[in-house]
């Protein structure tokens, strides 16, 4: 028996939150890295180096959210929808 949309709603909501969260963290990490590059170009290497580390940390969290949460949940939802 195929699950109804109501039964899948919590899983779809969780999938949406993980996807949007990963995308937002990726954009934030890219923005921080751009800020770091501009800061170093203007001569403030200490602040630029700190921003590079922070940007890499944010990008790493985006990667972890995408690979540890989003991808397995997507696989679960697909397998649930494929069952007859």
Describe this structure in words.
By secondary structure, the chain is an all-alpha fold. It has one domain. It contains 2 helices and no strands. The longest helix has 38 residues, at 45-82. The protein starts with a helix and ends with a helix.
**Class from helix and strand fractions:** mainly alpha
Q: How far apart, in Å, are the first and last alpha carbons? A: 5 Å
| Cα Rg | 18 Å
| Total count of helical runs of at least 4 residues | 2
Number of strands: 0
Q: Profile the largest sheet.
A: none
Overall body shape:
rod-shaped
Question: What helical percentage do the residues reach?
Answer: over 70%
Strand content: under 5%
Taken together, the total number of domains comes to 1
Mean model confidence by pLDDT: 93
H/E order of the elements? HH
Low-confidence runs of at least 5 consecutive residues: none
Key structural traits:
84 residues; mainly alpha; 2 helices; single chain
Task: Lay out the secondary structure.
Elements: H1 5-41, H2 45-82
Helix pairs in contact: 1-2
The gist of it:
With 84 residues, the protein is mainly α.
